[in-house]
Amino acid sequence: MNELTVLMHLLSKKINKSQIGATKQEILKNLNVKDKNKSIYFQTMINNLSNYLEPLGLQVRFNPLNSYWYISFDPETTEIISANPFEGNPRLAATLYCTMICCFNSTGEATIQKIKELRKKKGVLEDIKELDKMGFVNLEKSLNKVSLTPLIGYLLDLEKLFVKIALKLKN
User: Fold this and answer.
1) pTM to 2 decimals?
2) Which of 68-72, 119-123, 129-133, 155-159 has the lowest mean pLDDT?
3) Across the beta sheet with 137-140, what order do the strands follow?
């Protein structure tokens, strides 16, 4: 196998229902890279693979929630091909958004009470249970806490989301 084949395999492997891809360390280990210029080598390999995949409508992306690199469809292509997981159910999207805000404001976990206060709607617990079934959040019923899964980082461009939020706050 050549390096691109190994890289494709690592970046497209599914670990569980909410994780795909590999970390930089896993990639370097599997490619047996140990020299002092391994970061430059890694970046070159990622760029080369990304350029190779671009005509196919694929791109190499990074999920900041779990530090995994993965292969995905180009966002423009994805909008055409895939359906919105919350289509016809905007309350789930709103609850997930409020959960994200609460989790990012604290140490990565949010209480159901904080989400309820921010969302200001009834039925938040049912929404959270449904989001848990879909794999977007982990619900710890005994502790009354909710945490995000890496799945969100694969489906949303978090960098663009944060930039848009910052620009709205600035105005």
Assistant:
1) 0.66
2) 155-159
3) 109-111, 145-148, 137-140
